[in-house]
Amino acid sequence: MKSRISILLLVLFSWACYPAEAPVAYQPHDDIKKVIKSFLTGYAKGKKLKNFSIQIGSIDPRLYLKQCTTPLETYLHSSSNRSGFVTVVIRCTGEANWKIYVANKISFYTNIVLLKNTVPRGRILEAGDLQTERRQISHLGYGYYSDPKQLIGKIARQVIFSGSVLHPQLLNEPKWVRRGQTVILIAETGGISVRMSGTALSSGTKGKFIRVKNLSSKRIVEGIIIRPGVVKIDL
Questions:
Q1: Helix (H, G, I), strand (E, B) or coil at 13
Q2: For residue 51, what are the contacts with CB-CB under 8 A and spacing of at least 6?
Q3: Rounded Cα–Cα distance for residues 210 and 197 (Å)
Q4: What are the angstrom distances between the C-alpha of 177 and each of 17, 36, 119, 124, 205?
Q5: What's the first-to-final CA gap in the chain, in angstroms?
Q6: Which partner from 1, 83, 109, 165 sits 20 to 30 angstroms from 147, CA to CA?
Q7: What's the pLDDT tens digit per position in 183-235?
Q8: Distance CA 102, CA 90 (A)
Q9: Pairwise CA distance, residues 203 & 176, whole Å
Q10: What are the chain's domains?
């Protein structure tokens, strides 16, 4: 019996003398989320839109990551898209050497132009047809307008219903010059502006190049439409 007690005491003494292992330190999930929030705030401000909200995704509470001894690295994953869903990669390059992916959502808000009244196809938009409203724009993949003045004079490409968000695919530019129309030709050289009359050989919208027949010289020239009924040419 005494020998057994001696052996037990020896074992216990050995355990007491053996240095205990230091407890493993884990990276707090809240710290990871703070890093993501800071990264996405900078990303959102880079879009030059003042109004936005950020929703940080969840991290599996069963995920235990060793404490990183170096600052965490963050960058966007290629799966991020324009709809507002962004995946952030968080990486530890220290001794722990781990990497995780966290899905988040950014919502951007600004004033956009909506259609106040339903308009038929071919209708020219007027100021009374338009209104502005603060909306989330993260999901507006077709684009939007923020200034009603940009839309006055544009033509509905199809029937557009009241409350619709207006975007370029719904509208056509008005024809500033029509084929066969008599237009003003403007040529500038050396600070001198020369005006002539011509006949448009094709129709066109703002900024488009068209061919015009000079009524004086009978020459056919090419110019750019700069105003309704006005084409600028090079001498």
A1: helix
A2: 108, 109, 110, 134
A3: 15
A4: 97, 53, 24, 16, 7
A5: 120
A6: 83
A7: 999 998 777 888 999 999 999 998 999 999 999 899 999 999 998 999 999 87
A8: 8
A9: 8
A10: 29-108 (no CATH), 109-172 (3.90.1210.10), 182-233 (2.30.30.760)
* Contacts by residues 149-157 (CB-CB < 8 Å, ≥ 24 positions apart): 150/113, 151/113, 151/125, 152/125, 152/126, 152/127, 153/124, 153/125, 154/124, 154/125, 155/122, 155/123, 155/124, 155/125, 156/119, 156/120, 156/121, 156/122, 156/123, 156/125, 157/121
Q: Which residue has the tokens 């240095």?
A: 19
Q: What pLDDT shows up at residue 80? A: 65
Tokens of 170: 């719904």
Residue among 156, 173, 169, 143 at smallest CA distance from 115: 156
pLDDT of residue 16: 45
Supply the pLDDT for residue 10.
43
Quickly tell me which residue has 């004079």 as its tokens. Answer: 153
- Provide the 10 A C-beta neighbour count for residue 4: 8
The tokens 């094709």 sit on which residue? Answer: 202
Q: What are 8-11's contacts with CB under 8 Å, separation 24+?
A: none
pLDDT, tens only, 33-74:
999 999 999 988 887 777 899 999 999 999 999 999 999 999
The distance of Cα 190 from the centroid of its chain, to the nearest Å, equals 43
